[in-house]
Amino acid sequence: MSANQEAQTDELLALESIYDEEAFHRTESRQRGKINLCLELPPNFRLLVKGEACVEYGISFLPPLVLSFELPTDYPSSLAPVFTLSSKWLSRVQITALCKRLDELWEENRGTVVLFTWIQFLKEETLEFLNLQSPLEIQTIGGQPHYESGQNQSDTAVEKNKVQELDQRAVQEVDPHTDILTQLLDFNEAQKQKVFDSKAFCCGICFSENLGSNSLLFKECQHVYCKACVKEYFQIQIRDGKVQCLTCPEPECMSLASPAQVKLLVGEYEYARYDRLLLQSSLNLMADVVYCPRMSCCMAVMIEPDANMGICPSCRFVFCTLCKRTYHGLSLCKELQMEKDLQEKQLIQRATDESLSEDWLMHNTKLCPSCRINIQTWAATR
Predict the structure, then answer these.
(1) How far is the C-alpha of 237 from the C-alpha of 88, rounded, in Å?
(2) What region does 47 belong to: left with phi over 0, alpha with psi -120 to 50, or beta?
(3) Does the pTM of the predicted model rise above 0.85?
């Protein structure tokens, strides 16, 4: 085995021992591979997306830079690795600058293996080298990234900086069918979940220690409990019909579990009940929604503002929304009429009682000379 081959083999074995299969993939048949490099973002890093409106998001992870390489026979004695560098969120101008820096690092380390040096530079110094700070600005047109400093075509020049030729090794990965913002946010959430799954947490209910993969995080309050405890808690609440009470078990904490979290823990039947009761409770809060009064139907019915007629979209029953009987046009509801008559009788009876009371007081009482309270006279008691 030549000195170059031995150096290449040792370098690839070292990289395999440092990085897992997701980060480093080596092709066995030839001396080439691919490295996914997730940058180390500073705390409270923000992403500013400019399109039809400016929206800012807090993120902890960005999609990786992908360094694809092939080691020529004369590497590392005289030739550098052949490589391409790709990214979903950097412009080709920015990727070109990184490619040129990798070339410079090779020249500084010519004759020695350089892949690990490249990897460390890309992971730890990319943001500083490109002068990227929080908030990271990305402009989108039609859901796709657009940069003032460069376009996808190789003949596009820099308008605000010095004109420079784009490197053919610089690749901007753009999926025309997927919104760039969706890709960035989805990747950020997936990586945060991956980090959470690998950590250990103490359940606040049973006080046992569990991996994040066996725990549930309430995102609003960041409280963590084991899935077994939360599952039992959810099942009891759903069984009792308290679907609005699937909150964090922490006392006085009102952080709600998302439907996706509920579905993850409970069974199919329990989730169907939860979903139905949640929809019903939401409809109950809507002033323009009533239910079909037929017990065999009970379909939700939309009504017009200030109207008392409902038409069930399922059974086509036309009903009065006040008395829940067959619609009776302009005639008063039977129950309403009875209630009106009762109120009138009660009003008359109250007026009569008050009149009789005043008359009795006039003839049978007199005022106390001290406190002016009505007192019954001796004649009234005889």
Answers:
(1) 44
(2) beta
(3) no
